[in-house]
Predict the structure.
Amino acid sequence: MTSLKSFHTFGFSAHAKKITHLNSVADIKSALPLHRPFYILGGGSNSIFVDDFAGEIVKINLRGIECNETQEDFGIKVKAGENWHEFVEYCVKRGMYGLENLALIPGTVGAAPIQNIGAYGREVSGFIQSVDYIELATGEAKSILQADCGFGYRDSIFKHELSDKVIITAVNFVLPKKWVVEQSYGELANLSNPTAQDIFDKVVKIRQAKLPDPSQLGNAGSFFKNPVIGKPLLKSIREKWPAIPSYPVSDEQCKVPAAWLIDQLGYKGKTLGGILCHHNQPLVLANTGIGTGRELLQFARKIRDDVLVTFSIKLENEVRLLTTNGLIDL
Ligand code: FAD
Ligand code: EPU
C-alpha cells in the first residue's frame, strides 16, 4: 500500500494499493486498460480520501505550454499536469489576460474543466476553446469543443457522461487580445481602472486573507456548493431571516451563500474531533492534523442536516469524497 497523505491537500493518512505516474500520452496509452477501482488524480485539491482506496491512483503529470498568436487572440495549449496558478501567472506576465480572477486556485490545468473552476466573477469555461483527452475504452485521442462540455456552476460533462471514461491530456484556451476587466465581486469593485496585474494581485491578497493555505492547514477549499433555490423558498426564509444574501441566476431561481447558512447556525470556528469549520470561511472544513475521514463525514453530515432542518435547503458536497471503492456522495 502507498500513502496518499501528500497526494491530497486535506492530508488524511489514507493509502492506495498503487500509484502510477503518467508523464506523457504514450504513458497513458501503455497504462490501458485501467482496472476498477481506479481514480484519476491531479493535485488532489478537490479530492478527499476519507478511507484507504482499494485500487490504483493514476497521477497525471503531463507538462508543456504552447502559444499561438493571431491578430485577435492568444491560443494556448496547456498540458493537463501543469500547475493552474503558475499558468495564470505565466499568462499575466506575458500580457495574455482574462484568467487573472482565477489566480491562486490550487491544482492542475487538467482538472480545471472538470468542475469548471470559478472565483471572483469568472469561470474557466469562458476561456476554454476545447479539451483534449484520451478515451480509456479505446485509447483514442479526441477533442471536445467548449460548447459540448456542458459547463455550468461547478459542473461539466466530465462529471457525468465522461466521468471515469477519459483522461484529459490538455486544455486549449483562447484569450482575446481585447481585454475586458471583471470587477463585479465586492472587493474588486473598489479598484479604480485596474490592470490585469492589479486584479491578479488583489485576488491573491483576498484569497490569502480568507482561505487557509493547504500547506499549513489541510483543506480542499469550499466543502459544499452554494445552493440554487426557488424564489418562493427564498421569500419564506426571508420572513424569518431578512438578511439572507442572494444572487439571481434566472427568473425563477437564485443562489444563496452556503457560508452564510452555516454561519447562522454557529458552526464557524467549531470542531468535531480533528475537523475544523474554518473561522474565516465556514464553507471550508479543515483537518487540524489529527482529523479522520469518519469525523469529516460525521461533521459534514451534521452541518448538512442542520441546514436542511433550519432552512429547508439541501447542501451538496462540492469536494470529491473517496472511500474504498471510489466516489461517494455525502
Ligand atoms: P484533483 O482533486 O486531483 O481532481 C479533481 C477531479 O478532477 C477528480 O474528479 C479527478 O478524477 C479529476 N481529474 C483531475 N485531473 C484529471 C485529468 N487529467 N483527466 C481527467 N480527470 C481528471 N475551486 C474553484 O472552482 N474555485 C476556487 O476558488 C477554489 N478555491 C480553492 C481553494 C483552496 C484552498 C483549495 C484547497 C481548493 C480550491 N478549489 C477551488 C478546488 C480545487 O482547487 C479545484 O477544483 C481544482 O481544479 C482541483 O484541481 P486538482 O488538480 O487538485 O484536482
Ligand atoms: N459569508 C458569511 N460568513 C462568513 C463568510 C461568508 O455569512 O464567515 C457569506 C457572506 O454573505 C459572503 C458570502 O458568504 O458575501 C460569500 O462568501 P465568499 O465571497 O467568501 O464566497 P463563497 O460564496 O463562500 C465562492 C466559491 C469559492 C470562491 C469564492 C470567490 C463556491 C462553493 N465557493 O465561495 O470557491 O473562491 O466564491 O468567488 O462556489 C472553492 O470552490 O473551493 C472555492 C473556494
